[in-house]
Amino acid sequence: MTADLVIVGGGPVGLVTAIEGALAGLQVTVLEARTPDQGSLDKACGEGLMPAGVAHLRRLGVEIDPEGSHAFGGIVWEEQGFRAVGRFPHGQGLGVRRLTLSRALRARAMVLGVELRDGIRATGLAPGGVSTEHGVVHGRLIVGADGLHSRVRKWAGLSAGVGPRKRFGLRRHVRMAPWSDQVEVYLADGVECYLTPAGPDQLGVAFLWSGSKERFETLLARFPQVAQRIQGAPQCSPDRGSGPLHQRVHSVLGEVQGTPVALVGDAAGYLDACTGEGLSLGFKQGQALVQLSVTGHLARYPRAHARVVRLPYTMMKGLLWASRVGVRKWLVRLMRSLPWVFGRVLAANDGRLF
Ligand SMILES: Cc1cc2nc3c(=O)[nH]c(=O)nc-3n(C[C@H](O)[C@H](O)[C@H](O)COP(=O)(O)OP(=O)(O)OC[C@H]3O[C@@H](n4cnc5c(N)ncnc54)[C@H](O)[C@@H]3O)c2cc1C
Q: Residue 302, preceding bond cis, omega within 30 degrees?
C-alpha cells in the first residue's frame, strides 16, 4: 500500500501534521522510533504552548487532560530585580507536559484513522518511500518531522549544518503547585531560566544558555531566587537536554529519486527556544504543508514556511542580539513601563498583529 503521507517522527509536529492530513482526507502513516511506554516520548521542552498553538489544537479536536496541563495568561521577564509582565491580549497559553500532549495527539490521530507505527526507526530514503529495518514504507510525500537532529534532512540533502549560535537547553520538573499563572523567565548573563506551570502540582524548570553542556545544578545556582523557591520540592521527571539548537537548512522541500520530501517542525531548521514558539510554529508548518499538498501546490511550501517563521525569527534574533550586546536589561525596563506594549509584542510574535 502507498500512503499519501509518510511522516517520519511522531513528536507533536509530526502528529499535528498527521491529523491535518487525515482531516483533509489523506491516508497517513507515522513512523516513530520510540514506543509510547514508560515516558519514552518525553523530551527537553519548556512546554509552554502559546495561545495560537492552543487554538490550533482546539480546531483539530485535540483534547488535553487538565491533570497534565495548566493555563497561563502571559509571560514575565525578570532581570536584575526588574520585572516586566506581559499579558496575552487574545486567549491563553497552556503549560502542557509532553507526555500529556503526546497522549492527546495520538488519541486524536488514531480516531481519525492515522496509522501509527511505533518502535519503527527510519533508516534512509528509498525510491518511493522510507527504509526501515522492516522494509520500505511507501508514500507519495515523505515528511521529515524527526526533530532537531533530523536524519531525513540529511538524507534529502537539505541540511546546511549547525549554526554559529551554540545554545543548549535542559529541563526538569518539580512536584509543587505553580505559584503563578504566567510563564516566568529569569534572565542572567548568557543563561535564562524558564518556569512553566505544567499541571496542578508540577512546575517545569528549563534553562537555555550559550556555551557548552552544563549540569542542572550548575545552571540553577545562577538563579538563587529560583533555587530558594523550589528548594525541597521533589524532582518528578528525569533531566532532559538538547542542543546545539541552531540548525540550518538549504530548503524545507526536496526530492529523492522522484519522491518529494518536505520538512516540518524542528527538522525544518531551528533557531532558538527563547520565545517559546517552537510547537506553534511547527503546527502552522504542518497545516500549510497539508493544504498545499492537497491543492497541488507543494512547490509553494518553502515560501509558506518562510512566511510562518519570518516575524518570530526576527524577534528571536532581536532578543538574542539584545542579550549578547548587553542591552536586554533596558528592554526589560522598557517593557516593565509599557505592559500594554509587551502584551502586543507577545501577540505579534504568536501571529496576532492586531
Ligand atoms: C529547553 C527547551 C525549551 C523549549 N521550550 C519550548 C516552549 O516553551 N514552547 C514551545 O512551543 N517550544 C519549546 N521548545 C521547542 C520545542 O520543544 C520543539 O520545537 C518541539 O519539540 C518540536 O517538535 P517536533 O515534533 O518537530 O520534534 P520532536 O519533538 O523532537 O519529535 C521528533 C520525533 O521524531 C522521532 N524520530 C527521530 N528520528 C527518527 C527516525 N529516524 N525514525 C522515526 N522516528 C524518529 C523522535 O523519536 C521524536 O519523537 C523548547 C525546546 C527546548 C530545547
A: no
